[in-house]
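pinging the channel bc i need a second pair of eyes. not urgent but kinda urgent?? the chain im working w is below, pasted from the shared doc
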Amino acid sequence: MRLRTIAPFLLMFASAGFAAAQTKISGTVQCAKPEVQQSVPVDDQAGHAFSISKVQCNWTKPLEIAGLSSKDGTSTGADEVTGTTAKGHGQHVSTMATGEKFYVKYEGTATLKEGAPQAADGTWSFTGGTGKLDGIKGKGTYKGKGNPDGTISYAVEGEYQLPKK
């Protein structure tokens, strides 16, 4: 009986050594108006459409990951627009100042006014990286605020871990 009570504690203690520490990150990215955008209306109601877009972004407050600073990136996504709301998902690729990259998938919701984003929020997770960021894992949230010129700024928060090498 004593082995049964000790075994779970030993297992829990041993597995703690395998868990990698999560490192918190935050930054701000400014995204331009879409450089590519296509919208296809749905004939069921006014203001209903599906769209795809590609947007260039610059990190105004870089993410600091493993001693590297994010510089710029590109987001490519798809949205379903219904009136003043867009629900979407996509992929983001950011380049660090050293040239290494990280890849993120995201999904969220945006509020629109005359087709321009006013606010947005959602979740994201790392799907990979290059060089020092190879094998990166982690996730987080974002909140966006639209600017009068049609651009949008996102506050990004989350955490990451890198595999031990």
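so Residues 23-161 form a domain with the AOC barrel-like fold (CATH 2.40.350.10). and Helices lie at 2-16. — does that match what u expected or am i reading it wrong
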